[in-house]
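Consider the following assembly input.
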Amino acid sequence: MGRNFGRPVRRLEDGRFIQGNGRFVDDVILPRQTYAAFVRSPYAHARITGLDAAPALQMPGVVRVMTAADLAGAPDMPCGWMIHSRDGAEMKVGSRPLLASDTVRYVGEPVAVVVAESRDQARDAAEAVAVDYDELPVVVDCGDAMAPGMPQLHPAISDNLAYDWELGDEAAVDAALAVAAHRVELTLRNNRLIPNAMEPRACNADWDAQDEKLTVWMTHQNPFGMRTLYSAYYGLAAEHSLRIVSPDVGGGFGAKAPNYPEEVVVAFAAKLVRRPVKWTADRTEAFLTDAHGRDHLTTATLGLDAEGRFLALKVDTIANMGGYLSTTGSLIPTYMYGTMLSGQYVIPAIHCRTRAVYTNTCPVDAYRGAGRPEAAYVVERIVNVAARAIGVDQAEIRRRNFIRDFPYQTPVLFEYDSGDYEGSLNQALALSDYAGFPARKAEAAARGKLRGIGVAAYVEACGIGPSAILAKLGGGAGMWDSAEVRVNPVGTVEVLSGAHSHGQGHATTLAQLVADRFGVPIESIRIVQGDTDRIQAGTGTYGSRASVGMSATFNACEKIIAKGRRICAHLLQVPEDSVRFADGVFASAATNKTIPFGEMAAAAHAANAFPTREIEPGLVESSFFDPPNFTYPSGVYVAEVEIDPLTGVTEVAAFSAADDFGIIANPMIVEGQIHGGLTQGIGQALWEECRYDPDTAQLITASYLDYGMPRADGLPEFRLAFGCAPSPSNPLGMKGCGEAGAIGSPPAVINAICDALAIDHLDMPARPEKVWRLLHPKAAG
Amino acid sequence: MYDLAYVRPGGLAEATALLEADENATALAGGQTLLPVLRARLASPSRLVDVARLAELKGMALDGDRVVIGAAETHAAVSQSPVVAGAIPALGRLAGGIGDPQVRNRGTLGGAIANNDPAACYPSAALALDAVIRTTRREIAAADFFTDLFSTALEPGELVTAVMFPRCAQAAYVKFPNPASRFALIGVFAARTAAGMRIAVTGAGAGVFRWREAELRIDAGGGVADLDDLALPEDAFTSDLHGSADYRMHLARVMTGRAIAAVDA
């Protein structure tokens, strides 16, 4: 731990935010600004039989109406991750035009866009665009999508099946299951979620005809990824003439990582009308069109020996892709899911089959955890079903099966780098007073309440890259990260980082790292992110991968220090290898003189005290870091619930989380990440559920009146503890913490509910009526 | 939101005149229902007549055995009023449990009563306590005021000016909140009045109603445990995403029991 690094330094960016000085995309208003409003399909599945924009063109303030015909040269939306079916065939990609031309496949799909002088004029005119539809039958449930006679979404894709993928040795699994002393089977659903970032999506595109340069401000987690796509794929401008700016972004959660049609259409519109075009989604558009998360239907079988040791796990999942494959939609239920099915356990044989299906729903993509929560939910639920079946305590069965030696090669591709699973279990059991639970249960029973306790252990893969491994899994882009560190003559430091903060606090944590490396005040450091014109390169932030960008920053700092030692050797007139740097001061055993970091910086720029033919003037260094492996954060969570049997209401009475994130930059920020993740996971377990009408595929939960967001008053005081098994996969030993809470908490809560009710399983969310009916099976209805 | 005009009249007479002169004009009080509807472009009034700050619609005072609350008093104001807390503590607590702080700082008693959302809290109190609704034209008993889903006895251009609640120290409101909206999935207002036990149920789906069988059973000396076999009006309950009619009916029994227990606590 240094002066700053590892300490709970207050967030440097919060002063701006809480005083209303954040700069979000919608705050950007350009000269000659116009505004876009999208015409969206009111139907989930329909043929477009006619479109008349003429009435809209007559409306006041309308600049232009664009339809698919105006984008005839633009390619369809790409899916960025190639998955091969088990027969070797490439996945079947249903074509997704930027604007629907002949068929719409989910409610809210964009059909046309109106550009007008004001937002209200654009919206008024959008309502005047006359679109004729012939309604088609719909399919909503992923479990129905492949059934005979169901509506077919895409021509030449039979049974709505995008791919039928597998991972692992099925024969070995079947053989192990056949001789297992115990076998348990479980069918479960992972409920579909709507991301609900505080800031809805927005973009503002500006075409500069003089410079032939396109600038797009957009709410995005990966501005450089968008620059490459907009340039190389859509041909909107050459890469050097395309600037993407993702300024302050109010929450991403994965839903701001995909490529969306609206932003691309707005960029084309800006070139067409030769004026800046801005679009800001309203909350209803966010519900309808921000890529949703989860939505799996899974059957799993676990085989155990007579002592309760796991022998084999077989998982068969149907994953709902929605109407189209989103940018990384195909990746989530395959390499982000099947690879995590070993959990924290030695399971000698694992097989996963995933069938990805199209339905008349919003496309599904990454959402906080992205495949890893789905895997943890399957593993941690079936482990409890097994514990119940063979009469072993849920903590004990985990202890009996933990991986203890690292690195550990799982049967599903990944090699775990480090961990101390039993250490986290012991921490969690102590935090939660697991031993005292029977007394609390009895006390609750005396009050007429059913109390239950649930243990869940998770492991996840973060710190994405490594690029070479990702390419083998079907990825199309490198996932290193980069940083440039500029030390100015007066000693202030700019860090231009390819990572992107949309709430994670990078302006603080990166500054903590650099302040300690250079021994300078944290206030003298400025972190710059999100602007492709200022930053050399980057691959953005998602999948808890900021450790990659932070490692690049660290390496760039090391280069600065190395150069500083060379400069100081000249200034001190001592051998270079005698120069040491610590606590912000260069010193040498060969002299009593010392040089503070700032003086070295000034000397580097003055360039008059060292031979500039040997050492270049200036003090700017950059680094690209591609990790050798993922990092594998892990943790053990214990949820305690109390159920009112008269109403079925579940209250989370206590929640303990013992996580191992390796080295932690800022425990306060990490605790905040855990609080947020736990809240989202508890929300999924108890309240959140995206529901479409099964007959019309209309989104029923399209507002906060019907979509149950978690609230502070429904949550307990979280008890947190951190273990530390440093990751060997980066120079800082960090692992990543952004998604953990949302991964481990849903199974912990459901395990606790199942314990309270003495049942094997109930599907999320545990709505009060669902619980009440389990307790009162003879009730009417 | 569609383009519309906004007027803030200086007095109640002017407000009434504006509303009577234009059948497409709408009164705006706290706007907690109206503004989301406008934002979603589900309504397009010609103008909003903002009555939220009219002095004639303000005030909370005792008038003999009644508490008179101005229609434009916010839920927050009612929940913090010592007058209300002294005369009908359950009413202040009901107001303090509506929505969230932002809703309570804007939403008004008159707006809630006039909107008559079948899941709103206030109508149950008005019905159980035999409140009288004073309007710009007359006084209407609560029993005659709430006519159907989202509809009341108010005529076009007629505004609620105040609600008069009879004093009642022995009352309680117990709400089972919809976990998403925090409206009542079921809410029960129970009150021991001079005329006997009153039990009004909101959230059932078809609008607020009194559970007369339960009132009679309690008045006849029955206890909470004696309500289990009593019939509830089946047509008052509907099913939706958040709960089936059966479940709501069950909740109505449980919440009634809890409300009565709270009254007698």
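Chain B has eleven helices and 14 strands. Ask yourself how this observation constrains the way the partners meet.
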